[in-house]
Amino acid sequence: MKKQANAHLPDRNRTSLVARLVIAVVITIAILLIWISNLYLTDRFTQETRQRAELRAALYAGNLSSELQRTSVVPLLLSRDPVLISALNSGDFAATSQRLISIKDEIGAASLVLLDGDGRTVAATDRREIGTQHRNAAYFVEALRSADTVFTTEKLETGGLQFSYSRKIQSGNQGIGVIVVEVGLARLEQRWAMAAEAIMIADSENQVILSTEPKWKHQTVEQALKVENAPSAIERAFQATGDWIQTPAEAITQGRAIMREEAKIDFQGWRLIYFTTFASVRERVNGVLALEIMGFAILVALVFYIMSRRAVQQSNVFQRESIELRALNERLSKEIEERERAEANLKVAEQSLAQSSKLAALGEMSAAVSHELNQPLAAMKTYLAGARLLLQRHRPDEALSSFQRIDDLIGRMAAITKQLKSYARKGSEDLVPIDMRDALATGLSMMEPQLNHIKVRISQDIPDEPVMVLGDQIRLEQVVVNLLRNALDANKEMAEREIGLRITGGDIAKLSVRDNGTGINDLEQLFEPFYTTKKPGEGVGLGLAISSGIVTELGGRLIARNGSNGGAVFEIQMPIWNQNKQAAE
Ligand code: ADP
To answer: Which residues, other chains included, contact 490 with Cβ-Cβ below 8 Å and sequence gap of 6+?
Structure first.
């Protein structure tokens, strides 16, 4: 288990290394992507901004020239207006101003002024103007001189410029007055100033005549751009941006780059110069970059989240494992304790058992020996009685054969005691090849005196050729006799007692004894020493224990089962002895 726990460590190291690598790769990709997209987007958005600037410049220039054009036709129309002409002729201007106001509203000019032949304001959309003197004003002087509409630029006292179209009004061939129409360029200027951009209008002499930034006015374009204080609109735009834009600047204001776009105005060589900062570009690029960075941050956070979840899971697994290990350890130590206790108990039990079993074995052994010797003794008693009868009847030859039998039985008894001794010595004797058939025949002959007195049918199925095993004939006979005796005991109560004997060869030599008795009650205890179901004095329960021990010692086994038609079957199984094989080995 310890080994398993350690096996996780290299795994964990590998996981954290992989995670670090993944994060490093993600960050590298992120930096590269952000760098590339910065370059690409800056370029793209700059182009877009430029296009927009071009469009704006063209639009503003168009606005301006349409305003100028729209107003330029007004003086021509008004110079032929009979109401104005008659008012100038009659000197009655009571309704003239009202007429001018209504015309102004129609054409959308900034203001209309009617001057008489002396340059005095006789009617105006702004009634406060009435009575003011304009004799020296350019729009009056030049209009009187020219037969056409003239355009003049007049510097106002307020510092601004006034743009106006003026035309002389004729009665007959004589100029009786001048109509002055002010162009509402200041309105445009105000409208432009609302946007976060800067615009200047330069005339043919490169003088700034209109500008969203008042500081630029009345200077050349170059001078205006050198002005120390940046235009407020641009300044505002700059606050939102940094200086790290790589795009080459087209104009520098306060050391900062701005985009410059020019558009021609179709009027007296005027130009509209449009300035916009790269702020919008930067803002848009920054927006996209922020999204990208956010995406990567989410990705990295996700990786960290997954990693931490895995770590938590792993630590949970470790915890669970260690809890299981601890429980297992506890169980094991408890088990060990129990085993030790059991062992101690067992030792005590063994000691007492050894003591008592020594005594018991002594008793049982003597019972067994007498059990083994009783059979030949009973047979000898029968033969002796027979011999006495034969001698009394003067048939000494037959009596002699009985003595011979008795002699044989004495030899057997000696053999049995020897066998018991040999069993006690546990197979110290050499094994010799024997024929199973001989062992069965001798066993049967030993049982003969008993069999003669009872009615039992013994069937035999014995092969013609020898079935050779390596063993000890006397001991094997002892087993056979034991099995026969048990079989006779088992079918004692049967009306027709039967015993089937069978020997088969092949790889394994088998000798089976089948009876039609009661069958085996307890197959498990059958071979236990002193297990018996017989009455005291009839059995001690040693026969099968000894028999099984003998067969096992000879390299075979003794098995027991209940027969299919009732009764029990005992089978001695021993390895076949093959002379050739033995020789080859
Ligand atoms: P014992 O014959 O002295 O009882 P064994 O070890 O020979 O001792 O037999 C043990 C027990 O096995 C018997 O008491 C009997 O219950 C059972 N047994 C042995 N042979 C047979 C058999 N052929 N049929 C039924 N039971 C048997």
So the answer is: 515, 517, 518, 519, 567, 568
